[in-house]
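Lab notebook page, bench 4
Experiment: in silico fold of construct C2
Operator: M.H.
Input chain length: 268 residues
Purpose: comparison with the prior construct
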Amino acid sequence: MAVVRVITFNLLTVADADGRVRQEIVRQVLPGLGPDIVALQEVTRTATLDQAALVLGPDFTIVDLPGRSPGGTGECLATHWPLDAVHTLDTPLASAVAVEVRGPFGPLLVVHHRTYQLDQEGTREQQALATARFVEELMIGLDDLPVILLGDLNAAPDAASIRFLTGKQSLEGTSVRYEDAWAATHPDEPGHTFTPRNPLVRAGQMPLERGRRIDYVLVRSGPHGPLLDVADCRLIFTEPVDDVWASDHFGVLADLQPPPHLPGRWAE
């Protein structure tokens, strides 16, 4: 059965921790993973350095999220399928891009969402709410369109922003439900993507970090569940290459496929 392979990965800005060396590790490894869609965070895209194009290769179309740093660092969403449409959420509070692509089993909407740092859960709640409402507006009249939401969400699964996105609570009277690809396939494993097992974490700006899962692949659910099943989900860049860690984050790779029959209907 055809699958769509998606990856989210925070590269750690190239200015930190021998970034050019780490970049070369990612350039060597990432294309071989065979992704169809990639969300990158802390990626530098300037006139002199297009890190996304460098690590992905020439076969991807790259769309930037609004709000890059003065040095050109930010987030982007890349696909090797042609884009049917690009939608942008750009407010003082929230930023996201949503791209419509046509995959091996039909059209998809893929969303990359930016969130705030550790001590700003109140802001992250509002950002998650804004992005969820942005997606729901795009989905009017498109009930059969699968939606994938991915990114470094800077929050563990028990945070309110993630509980909201995964359907465990509402925010301001709004409810949504996205399937968490890691939780669907590894329900008893923490799956930490930002962990002191990676020495770059303790060497960086958060030396007392205990370990959390903060990077996600999520699939939007309708009333009877998600329109894509999680065939596989695993962490990537979890070991050094020649003693070099690719980033202070581990990436998340998920293979998604249609369910045996559409949710809300009985099998024929």
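Observations: The mean pLDDT is 96. The CA atoms of residues 66 and 152 lie 16 Å apart.
Next step: discuss at group meeting.
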